[in-house]
Amino acid sequence: MALSKLKTLFKENLNNKKNSATEVDESYHIEKPITENYEDWGFKKGGHLNGSHSGLLSCLARIREDHKRIVRNDEIKQRKLKEPLITLRDTYLEEIKYKQEESIDIIKVKSPALKNKIEGLVKEIISIKQNPDSILPDKMSKVSFTIGLFILIALSIYLFIFYSSASFSAFFKEFTLNEIGVANSIFDPQAISKAYQDGVTELILIISMPFVFIGLGFLIHKFQEKKGLGKFLKIGLLIVITFVFDAILAYEITEKIYNIKAENSFQEFEPYSIELAFQAINFWLIIFAGFVVYLIWGFVFDFTIDSYDKINVVKQAIKARKLEIKLYKEQLAKLEDSTNQLKVEINELKIKCKKLKTKIDGVIIDTAEFDKILHEFLGGWTHWMTANKKSMEDIDLANAKANEFIEVNIMTLETHNLTTV
Question: Taking the complete model, does pTM exceed 0.70, yes or no?
């Protein structure tokens, strides 16, 4: 009889435990009443599950799934959440279209145009090489250049001899009675050798002097190439400087001749002056022997350079076309780089559009709202634990587990494109 009662009590306790376990399991899946907020519901569920940590995590998981289902079925909210994504995707699609049009324009219009220009210039170069006379402006240019070059060399030799001798006579030579003639006073065949005997510095000065005048003539030519009225002022100034330089040399030479005559004459000579120099025929002979030839050298130099430019027109034409080809090839290379860059940018935009499409086709969940709901429920749960005098260690552990759950789920939602932009 006693044994029968014990068996009955054991069966009743076992049934009560099963019923209790079933109630706990079922309580995990009870949905929140519509009229109840999450904090109050969290307080209520905390009481049902006695504040257990596993029960808290199960409730949070249930809230997550319920919230997804609710958001998924809310078409109006989904449309609103997806509007920024759709706008951004449309912007990317417009950029793709613009870049594709730009790429097509480069490939089908700009690049072929440059290639055609390069091919045309190559054909022109071949044609010029085969028939150079077709672009020569004057067939007599070669003859004119040869004659001008010969005269220019001869005049350069003359100017070198004249100015080296004249500068030696003006600065260093001591005249004698048998050297007072114009020819002897200007053209000294031993001027360089005598200057060398007197010292290297004197030799350098005598040799360098002709190049001063040749340099002045070259400057006149370069100024003639310039545009504007200012060039005439510069050319005139150079001519005046050259004339004054020649006049100084002539004055020095004629003064030495005049003084030799005065020293060896029984007549009284007045001191040599500029006025006497202007009256002396030798003074003007020396100037014209140098200055006029210098001017002629300048004109011949211009004529020779002009003739050379004419016969060099073939080389210049080929060189100009090669330069154009080089510039076009550089532009073509830049266009190719632009095309490659556009391809990269288009691919990047397509990848972005694909990611946006995944977001748009999926479910968008406002993680801020989701985070708020979970924390409200957690707040109600911990409130119940506090009200029922659960230990602080137990409450802190519940908070830690819940916060970890929330953080992981928020991150998971973002990873699976379930967030707003």
Answer: no
